């Protein structure tokens, strides 16, 4: 009772102080930086839990199949989920820049060194040697740099240093060649090519898709992000998370990481989750979507869901 009263009092005091603190932060020109930091910590808040033993019981010796497209830097390089869970994955890396693919081959068992597209064809890739991670199938558009808060003195970092042709295949064709029948987790970070890659997915149905969407693209002729959203909606997916990335002059992010899961309100989504119940629960736990998982588990009466009501979703604290 005393603890509850003290907590309530502390919240009231902080609520009174926040406007004054905010004015000080604005004067110091760090208000947005502090807000972004706190927001980032919210995304990581559920990392305080370790669900490894629970996930081991769910999957026994079965690995979760992950396809990482645009794999430069390695699997889970952005720390999207806790590294303690990486051991549960069988990872397939896709990186079309040959030099980067060779680096990955030294660390990962499965590395595909071709590009992915909506059809099997040759495509040009624009290499940015000074900023290799921004290389793309689409040409950079300097007229869009300002909206990404890129300073003019840094424009040379985004200059195309090489344009080369690469072999591209559909996701479906590539995975069939290496006898991979399912993917559970699909990550796409391909600087605007995400929609074209998804068009080549065909009958593969990941349980979680994480991709980078360009709201205001810094590349020429990238499809509108609304087309990307519409395509995944038609495939039976719903958005469960998004997070702004990079600097931007707009009040909404110029780019976002967006996470999709099967739409559990529709028959196809329900069937996909039910067929892969253990892996779905495991992925939702790893990525920290606790409250949403509880809702889905109750609605679909998932048998593997147990003893999780004691865990609070700290994202909302």
What's the quick description here?
The chain has helices spanning 2-27, 31-44, 52-59, 98-105, 171-177, 194-199, 225-234, 267-275, 277-287, 290-300; strands spanning 64-69, 89-94, 110-112, 115-116, 121-127, 162-169, 185-188, 208-214, 237-245, 255-262.
Tell me the number of helical segments per DSSP (H or I, 4 or more residues long): 10
Distance between the termini: 20 Å
Please state the average pLDDT score.
94
What is the CATH topology of the largest domain? Rossmann fold
Strand content: 15-25%
Per the principal axes of the C-alpha atoms, what is the gross shape?
A: globular
Helix and strand run = HHHEEHEEEEHEHEHEEHHH
Strand count, sense and barrel status of the largest sheet are: 7 strands, mixed
Query: Which second-level CATH architecture of the largest domain applies?
Result: 3-Layer(aba) Sandwich
Find the count of extended strands (DSSP E, 2+ residues).
10
Query: Runs with pLDDT <50, length 5+?
Result: none
Kindly provide the name of the CATH class of the largest domain. Alpha Beta
Strand order of the largest sheet: 3-2-1-7-8-10-9
How many domains, in number, for the residues? 2
Structural class: alpha/beta
The CATH superfamily of the largest domain is known as Vaccinia Virus protein VP39
